[in-house]
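BUG: 3D viewer hangs when loading the predicted structure for this chain

Environment: internal workstation, default settings.
Expected: structure renders.
Actual: progress bar stalls at 90%.

Input used:
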Amino acid sequence: MARLKDIAEQTGLSVNTVSLALRDSPRIPPDTREKIRLAAAALDYTPNYSARALVSRQTKTVGLLLTDITSPLLTQVARSVEQELKDLGYVTLLAASNGDPKEELRALATFRARQVDGMLVYPHDHSRLDHLRRLRVGGTPMVLLAGNCEGDVDVICLDEQAGALRATRHLIEAGHRRIGLVDGAYLRGNPAKTEGYKEALRAAGIEPSPKLVIDPEGHSVGHGHRAFARLMALAEPPTAVLTANDRLALGGLRWCQEKGVAVPHDVAVFGFDNIEYAEYASVPLSSVDYPSDDLARKAVARLITLISDRDQSLLPELVRIQPELILRESTRSRP
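Structure tokens produced before the viewer hung:
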């Protein structure tokens, strides 16, 4: 591999000058920097980041842990995070837990072994965060992108409870009284959407019915298709359904199309996350918007601040981004 010394010999300059030029130091004239860059390219020079890390105590890498690599939403978040970090000179290491606590621990251990400067984490269970607290207390800069860990670890997330509450309230205001929910996350420590749904119903004087809450046992379009079949088979089926994500809602729309159930005349459907496919569904899907770019920007900015705070003097923050409703044909008001 080419070294700084090789570039210096080819250009007739000092190693220190070459090093400064490759770091775009304003101390080196532009024409000299260009000469050095051309020589580096000709020699196929690659910076030795391991050596840099020994000096700066930073590897310029950040670990990003997702829960589901197949989720269109999380793919968009990963893209936004990677772009934000790249603009700041960082590389993203990506891992997924796939909802498995052992896989989550393994991914965190890998990040630590690779000596990442910080971590951005979607925890698989929002109620079991002790292992993440220990990492944060131990000095690992970390920001959670979901969950409620107030006072222990920084959290920057969408207020999912508020999103579910507003979506359910919209359905109530549209004239619906029997509103179903397709969400099994409350069984796995993530109750925010279910709590928001119940809160809106009770505020309207409607007692939530356990029969109308279905665990889809997964997050895919197929899981949504099967969940709608169960909901609509009830003796008194719902006239509106809120789903925990848009993929579940898309499966529900497909089931309705197959069975001749008109949306929104027979049943209104409200999704969550506002992924790209929602707008182009067979019936354009209303959804709770997930501002992935805004969340990524805020989370990365906070993480870089924590990385720079080597004395760990900053107290953890909890930031909940308030959601907006994107209303489309699938929830048009009932006559």
